[in-house]
Design a protein that fits this description.
- The complex is a heterodimer.
- Helix content of chain A is about 70%, strand content about 0%.
- Chain A is mostly helical.
- Chain A folds into two domains: about 50 residues, no CATH class; about 210 residues, Orthogonal Bundle (MetI-like fold).
- The longest helix of chain A has about 30 residues.
- By secondary structure, chain B is α+β, with helices and mostly antiparallel strands.
- Chain B has two domains: about 230 residues, Rossmann fold (3-Layer(aba) Sandwich), CATH 3.40.50; about 110 residues, Nucleic acid-binding proteins (OB fold (Dihydrolipoamide Acetyltransferase, E2P)), CATH 2.40.50.140.
- In chain B, strand 9 and strand 10 form a beta hairpin.
- In chain B, helix 4 packs across helix 5.
- The radius of gyration of chain B is 24 Å and the shape is elongated.
- The chains are: A mainly alpha, B alpha+beta.
- At the A-B interface, helix 8 and helix 9 of A face strand 6 and helix 3 of B.
Chain lengths: ~270, ~350
Amino acid sequence: MTGASPFSYDRLLNTVAAWALALLWILPLAYAVWTAIHPAAYEARFDLLAPLTLENFVKAWQAAPFARYFLNTVLLVTMVLAGQFLLCTLAAYAFARFTFPGRNILFTLVLLQLLVMPDILMVENYKTMRLLDLVDTIPAIALPYVASGFGIFLLRQTFMTIPRELDDAARVEGASALGVLWRVYIPLAKPTYLAYGLISISHHWNNFLWPLIVTNSVETRPVTVGLSVFSAIDSGVEWSVINAATLMTSGPLLIAFLLFQRQFVQSFMRAGIK
Amino acid sequence: MVDAMLASTGKPIRLEAVTRRWDETVAVDALTVDMAAGSFTALLGPSGCGKSTTLRMVAGLESVSEGRILIDDEDVTTRSPSKRDLSMVFQSYALFPHLSVAENIIFGLKVRRVSRSERDERLQKVADLLGLSQLLERKPGQLSGGQQQRVALGRAIIAEKPICLMDEPLSNLDAKLRHEMRLEIRSLQQQLGFTMIYVTHDQVEAITMADQVVLLNSGRLEQAASPRDLYQKPASPFAARFIGTPPMNLIPASALNKTSGASSLLIGVRPEAMHLQDGGPVSASVRAVEYLGADLLADCEIDGAPFQVRLPARRTVVPGDRIELGFEADALHVFDADTGRRRDDLISEFGALTRS
């Protein structure tokens, strides 16, 4: 028996490659952290003993209405998530447990939505928002995303794994169709809701292009757009302040990632099933 | 022993020509059965005979293609399950995995907005009755099969519904537990007085528990009768062979008695109804012998027709022997192979023939 040899080139290469990629990946973030907590003079100069400062954060916070941007983003993300949970749950329940004429065609259309890049529809969406007189409002950013084909698909698959007999039992015990959904399906699909919620929040927190197009005032801009407006100032690029602002805006997501790391990875694994 | 609080009075159920069809296949074909209030009815049959479908139609979980279902003389054919005032125990128990035992049991009461104090009071009673008091905080996943079964029973009886439906509730238990639960379910039903419909493919369960056995075969009613009648007077060759182990011997009349011209008749005698009798009317050759301890099961042959006889174990019979057998005249069954019906009018005739 040769067994597991203590030294193997394959393993060594794997480890080295993993570390190299990881370092490459973390470099921008490390640089952002480095410049954000040091005075501007150290932007391009590495000195372990450089003085630490929080001044960049203060400067960034004061330079742009980030508090307002944060509020906007939180409102946006909450709105999208609430809309998605409501609509996707109802649609997924209908697709999973009811038979009605045209069900398969409708579900195919929902699946087709997964193939369409949202960016393609941007002009169309803008026209719709104009029609609804919603341009430059937070609902305008949220509306195109509240009915998510992916969410419907994910929840439908989860609902379909729930044994039919549980549904029957709840109905014999007197629960209505919506009662069964509320008391049986939703509680049993909790892990899926968590995973999907994490994906949705991270996606819409980071969404940039559509909010950039549809908003043009401080009252509606989410942090991503606010940050880009902020970093595009003409008076020279001050990396330390920009990076401090960037860290600030992505901070909540980073914390959420650290807290829900396991579910986060799982959710993307689930997302890969599609 | 049971307080008045948990006692319910059953309601009669009547199926009138109930039919269930899926496209071309007929799962249940014009089934008409009466179930008396407070009685225990077993729906019995091989798998795929439509017994579960029938139960689900009574529950309202399956729609009825034709015919009517009456509960307490009210037509409930199109009513939703929750409006039929019944409870159900499923084969898989269908316990909600995210709820504790207590929450599972009071699920229906909660849905129906019964007050908390009454819920707690009833839960206490049911838990005591079924010996679940120590387990109320557990999740179903932490229980054994037998305990899960009790929780499912608890959920079914707590609301004191006049009707309880059970779909093969014991099929996931081991033999010993199954026997215990059989007695327990039967005594529970008698104590609480609800009308029970119990689906099973196990004839022993049906015979031992039920007041009335409804025997189904490929969607059609073979016979609805008390266990005793079903055993003693099976209405068809199918019923004759389905009830009793080993099954009843059915041989063409021509093989038994050459003088009989009616070739489409089948003569049935149960293996346990035959005994060795020198000079008896039936003479057979033994092909194989199974030793069962208390008795012997001998595979015999009469004119090419296979035949089983249960004999006392003290008699030694070996393959190749010729034995002569007799039986009482009332152990004889005659069926018409063409119509599949029982021909009681011919029994005395054949009885006389075989005796002569």
